[in-house]
Amino acid sequence: MQTITKAAVRARLAAMRAAGERGDVPGWVLITLMTAGLVTVLWAVADDQLQTLFRRAMGSVTGP
């Protein structure tokens, strides 16, 4: 019969946590790259409209 110690259980849990965290990184990288791609495409398509919107917003601001 094999005896399982607390240290062995802790080591196994730590290994499982580490493996899970490393496996999640590619997903976050993909999400980040996709978001950057969407922003780039939207910026390229709507550049003139965004500039006009910004100019109107800044023109409507009144200061002291």
Structural description of this entry:
It is a single chain. The chain is an all-alpha fold and 64 residues long. 83% of the residues lie in helices and 0% in strands. The chain is elongated.
Order of helices and strands: HH
| Structural classification | mainly alpha
The main β sheet shows up as: none
What is the strand content?
under 5%
Number of helices: 2
How many angstroms does the end-to-end distance come to?
83 Å
Q: Outline the low-pLDDT stretches.
A: none
Mean pLDDT: 83
Shape summary: elongated
User: Over all CA atoms, what is the radius of gyration?
Assistant: 26 Å
The number of E-state strands comes to 0
Notable features of this structure?
64 residues; mainly alpha; 2 helices; elongated
List the helices and strands and how they pair.
Blueprint: H1 6-45, H2 47-59
Summarize the structure.
By secondary structure, the chain is an all-alpha fold. 83% of the residues lie in helices and 0% in strands.
